[in-house]
Design goal:
CATH architecture of the largest domain in chain A: 3-Layer(aba) Sandwich
Number of domains of chain B: 1
Oligomer: heterotetramer
Number of helices of chain B: 8
Number of strands of chain B: 16
Largest sheet of chain B: 8 strands, parallel
Function (chains B, C): Catalyzes the conversion of dihydroorotate to orotate.
Radius of gyration of chain A: 18 Å
Bound molecules: flavin-adenine dinucleotide, flavin mononucleotide, FE2/S2 (inorganic) cluster
Structural class of chain A: alpha/beta
Strand order of the largest sheet of chain B: 3-16-15-10-9-8-7-4
Pathway (chains B, C): Pyrimidine metabolism; UMP biosynthesis via de novo pathway
CATH topology of chain B: TIM Barrel
Catalytic activity (chains B, C): (S)-dihydroorotate + A = orotate + AH2
Enzyme class (chains B, C): oxidoreductase
Subcellular location (chains B, C): Cytoplasm
Number of helices of chain A: 7
Strand content of chain A: 25-35%
Mean pLDDT of chain A: 92
CATH class of chain B: Alpha Beta
CATH superfamily of chain B: Aldolase class I
Number of strands of chain A: 16
Strand order of the largest sheet of chain A: 4-3-7-1-2-6-5
Structural class of chain B: alpha/beta
Chain lengths: 267, 306, 306, 267
């Protein structure tokens, strides 16, 4: 964890409200691990908190980080105005990412919409020593376009969209069930809308598969100093910014479901 | 010459810079950004007798130039603090540790103060009286002078450690409260705690925070904090620990000139994790440039009699 | 269909958008930027019986996301308002005019209310009780429930115009004050007035404002305003005129959902002189997009029972 | 008075903390009058109030406005980062400027430091129909460098600096007295530190000359709606933003000098 001023080398619209930002940042690019994130400071001082954005991809050799972001409110809107050559302050890498220390496993990666942002680097981190299958799900073709940016043969990605504009007409779980009817996997990694992740985790548990999910919470400090992002888990209170954002699904799912302590992800 | 050396409630501090309770965990969370021993003192997260999970739902909301929090005093409880945390930080944090203590009744405050009394590592107590008093219909201890006085007195009776009473700004007359806690033996007052605020999610047509209301902190509250510190520091003889929106060296100087003998940094650290270092270096530079032997010379400099 | 049509204290308004007293002069100052008749109502600068020069020295200070003012009720007095200003604006402003009235004693309030009673152009009175009460040791009328109730009652007795009592946020329990002014006949409450704050000029080692303290307004105070409006609007039956930091369409929607039946724009107009127009258009658009026949449908939408 | 988004076409350092900003803004350039000012909105939303900056020069034909500014605090510091092509929101033209409806007069213009900013356009507005003499005073050579930007023969400008680095070693009043010992003038216009303007006004009054001075006050609205900038004058309370910033010296000087209602200009 440290502060670094990165220099923007690309910041372009990827269709709809999605943007890809490439940043030159030596220490950050080297330190980043899949599933971790950076807090990006807004230039406009009226917005005092950093915006947590996942590591989409890190090119350690070229000292380059990629962020893939969706415009949600004023902060991410502000990001879209940043020009090439402009500096941004990065705080990170933060949190506990995915378990990437696997070898010879059959891995299923299930991403939903913007949830696919952290999964690109996850795939990069595990694909050489394991077999990876990717499900890219979303509302429509725009929501899964992020997969075009993966370093992964597009024809090997299983697409599923609610409106059927690309791939299977259906959701991530439909696609997952279909794959599971043909194949067995050792582990599932998932990131996307909370409801989707819960459903994915349930299916994984039914199939006795390990499942890692990546949560979102509003954050102030990013370093477990403020307990703003704490959630109730089967192992007690956990901080999404430090103990997570990636958790084993079993400690999260079905915790006191009536209490809204799960995840702020309203998608 | 250490121009920042400060004595506060009998503690010799390297400098008058502390952390604000709830914004710095238990002292080691920011160690990758700067050495916590650069601080004058470390004020840790508010503790209660029993562990607390805090409030459910969203707990953080950004507001213009500020933020709301409704963490609801999530903390691991005094047992865990004594048995686990003090061991974790032992040797790693050599700056004085100050615990922030909280209760739902005067008895609870007394109980936790007694527990803290025996913890060697803790050099002073910050008595947070902004919490709702369950026996008094839920109004904060800090909202009524008599009650604020009573809890101060009760805690002072069971501890030998200096007691810094932390005042709530959500009151009509903060000077009256400061005076009564002084009369009841407080060694210092700390102000301000957060302003009660809220934010609404217009898409969901619901409050953003699960708890509806939360505490406002950050630069937005700075003028209110300065006003209260200016008023209180002229009305009491005990020193004032000032906080509320400090996010730059100039802010720190404003707080000292308003009458704070020491300052706490909270939300400003979220905005800039190395803020404490920047302020320390900035104050040193200020002293040198202005030929000031010790930073305490500017405390209260904006008061009318100065 | 005018989806913004609102009835407030018996006045039929084109929309629920008003100006905040002291931020819009006497109604024509911003006419080059937008037609003041686009507003639901125009609340003019606080008036007193005699003309007042206001405070000396610097009166404005910017703060993070906000500003302090200590104009000290500079105004030309009720005579000048009646004899000169009402003539100047006659015919030019057709939206209802609301006067904000101020006194140093209950008698002064009564006196000025009587004077206003006979001014045809004035459709309602905003009774500002945030000023210091000279007979009560300088504490604001709005700080003590009994006094707030008494001044409301006294003014109601001498006027037939609707009375909107404007509350100070610098109190421990704003709900108690709102309730007592309701009991004493207030037709509505307006909140919030400014938070008391200050700022220090570190070069001069002096308060920035000549008057030392000033009123904090602008986006910084929004969370406090929303919280108070949310609390008060659930506790009283009379309508709430909401204000405090509104600077965008979304802010306006937040205030309505918090429970304000109408809103006033103050500091936001300094930030963006065409803000009232933008909010008017934005609210219309919001209604259309959300299939809302009248904006009043969202008033209090964030309340727990909704 | 109106709002206009101007486009920056130049924004360069002029030595020390002084900057010249040129802005393309059609309506504003045409409407501007000498002595008036614009409120410039900061991009950083933490600073909510516009910064009042005088019209340094307006090129009506080319629709270009010049602002000459000194870095004082965070707002003017922010201005220095604005790039060519960036938009800035202008509110104005505001206030009552200098009386430029003179013909065949002998005019003395006395500027001190940044007070010379509004005087360039004043000189442009009166020089063709009148005879103009300029005194440019300041701390040192840096403080009077602004005169290089005037469209006026430099050798005809009388310089006076406290340290004598350029022109006469002395202040504006010394220079003024020297000129008055040789010549008579019909009117004096002055802008600069308040103490300087007061001294200039006194000398003018001793010589029975009309004198216009330009004041500064902290402002919120700029349109006499907030009375934040009000000052006590011999004609009662006046708003610097609307009744001024230019006033006849006689209504301002010696008003209740013990009360600090004059001018916030602390220079
Ligand atoms: C660990 C983590 C990784 C993330 N990675 C990505 C990513 O790679 N790409 C991407 O587009 N988005 C990502 N998000 C979500 C992203 O942080 C929010 O969309 C963003 O903060 C919204 O900011 P805003 O100012 O545009 O929105 P506003 O709604 O105006 O923001 C207001 C406040 O709420 C916070 N906030 C709003 N939505 C969220 C959210 N979903 N999660 C956390 N805080 C939120 C903001 O940070 C800010 O403090 C991630 C969130 C987390 C927690
Ligand atoms: C009518 C008028 C014309 C001016 N013309 C020029 C000009 O041409 N060039 C130039 O360099 N400066 C000019 N000034 C001064 C200029 O407005 C201030 O230097 C500037 O506002 C400082 O902003 P800041 O954020 O850098 O400083 P800060 O001190 O951080 O500003 C804090 C607040 O105080 C206000 N403020 C600070 N100093 C002044 C001041 N002297 N007058 C009014 N408000 C102030 C700011 O606008 C802001 O609201 C003029 C002022 C007035 C009133
Ligand atoms: C996330 C968060 C948690 C806090 N927790 C506590 C607490 O446990 N006890 C306490 O007395 N104050 C608590 N506070 C208040 C701060 O200590 C401080 O008084 C306040 O935030 C104002 O300072 P700031 O603006 O610098 O943050 C908390 C503040 C924040 C933002
Ligand atoms: C310059 C200024 C002058 C004000 N004068 C008055 C006044 O005369 N009477 C009054 O009741 N409120 C006065 N107010 C308070 C405003 O009407 C309003 O309640 C407050 O500013 C909060 O709203 P805002 O944040 O939208 O400005 C004044 C506020 C400002 C900024
Ligand atoms: S964001 Fe502060 S503890 Fe997680
Ligand atoms: S700045 Fe508002 S009246 Fe002059």
């Amino acid at each position: 964890m440290f502060l670094e001023d990165g220099v923007i080398i690309e910041n372009k619209n990827m269709g709809d409200n999605y943007y890809l930002m490439k940043v030159k940042a030596v220490k950050s690019a080297v330190a980043a691990k899949a599933g971790q994130f950076y807090m990006i400071k807004c230039h406009n001082g009226i917005r005092i908190l950093g915006r947590p954005i996942s590591i989409h991809y890190a090119d350690q050799e070229n000292h380059m980080l990629e962020f893939y972001y969706e415009v949600i409110g004023e902060g991410t809107k502000e990001f879209t105005n940043y020009k090439i050559g402009e500096e941004i302050r990065l705080q990170g890498p933060l949190g506990t990412g995915f378990d990437t220390e696997l070898k010879g496993k059959k891995i299923l990666v299930v991403g939903g919409g913007m949830g696919m942002a952290p999964l690109k680097y996850l795939v990069e981190s595990v694909k050489n020593k394991n077999t990876v299958t990717i499900i890219a799900a979303g509302r429509d073709v725009g929501a899964v376009r992020i997969a075009d940016n993966y370093h992964f043969p597009k024809e090997d990605i299983v697409f599923a969209t609610d409106d059927g504009t690309v791939g299977l007409k259906g959701n991530a779980v439909d696609a997952m069930k279909e794959l599971l009817s043909k194949e067995k996997y050792d582990i599932v990694y998932t990131c996307g809308p909370h409801k989707m992740m819960e459903a994915v985790a349930r299916v994984a548990s039914e199939h006795n598969m390990r499942c890692q999910i990546s949560l979102e919470e509003k954050m102030a400090c990013g370093v477990k100093a403020c307990v703003g992002c704490s959630i109730k888990t089967k192992e007690g209170m956990k901080r999404v910014c430090a103990d997570g954002p990636v958790f084993e699904a079993e400690v999260i799912v079905d915790v006191n479901p009536k209490e809204n302590t799960g995840c702020s992800c309203g998608k | 010459m250490n121009r920042l050396k400060t004595n506060f409630v009998g503690l010799d501090l390297k400098n008058p810079i502390m952390t604000a309770s709830g914004c710095f965990g238990f002292g080691l969370e920011y160690k990758d950004y700067f050495d916590p021993n650069e601080l004058g003192a470390v004020v840790v997260k508010g503790l209660t007798l029993e562990p607390r999970d805090g409030n459910s739902g969203t707990r953080i909301a950004e507001t213009p130039g500020g933020m709301l929090n409704s963490v609801g005093l999530e903390n691991p409880g005094i047992d865990h603090f004594e048995n686990v945390i003090t061991k974790e930080i032992d040797g790693k944090i050599t700056s004085p540790i100050i615990t922030n203590i909280n209760g739902r009744t005067i008895e609870e405050y007394v109980e936790i103060a007694k527990r803290v009394e025996s913890i060697e590592a803790v050099k002073a107590i910050e008595l947070n009286i902004s919490c709702p008093n369950v026996k008094d219909g839920g109004m904060a201890f800090g909202a009524r002078p008599e009650v604020a006085g009573a809890v101060t007195k009760a805690v002072k009776e069971v501890t030998t450690k200096p007691v810094i009473v932390k005042l709530s700004p959500n009151v009509t007359d903060i000077v009256a409260i400061a005076k009564i806690v002084e009369e009841n033996g407080a060694d210092a007052v700390a102000l301000i705690n957060t302003l009660l605020g809220m934010s609404i999610d217009i898409k969901k047509k619901k409050p953003v925070l699960g708890n509806i209301f939360g505490g406002l902190s950050g630069p937005a509250v700075k003028p209110v904090a300065l006003r209260m510190i200016y008023q209180v520091s002229q009305a009491v003889k005990i020193p004032v620990l000032g906080m509320g929106g400090i996010s730059s060296v100039n802010d720190a100087i404003e707080f000292l000139m308003a009458g704070a003998s020491a300052i706490s940094l909270g939300t400003g650290i979220f905005m800039n994790p190395i803020l404490p270092l920047e302020i320390k270096e900035g104050l040193e530079k200020y002293c040198i440039e202005n030929n000031i032997d010790n930073i305490s010379e500017i405390v209260g400099a904006a008061h009318p009699n100065k």
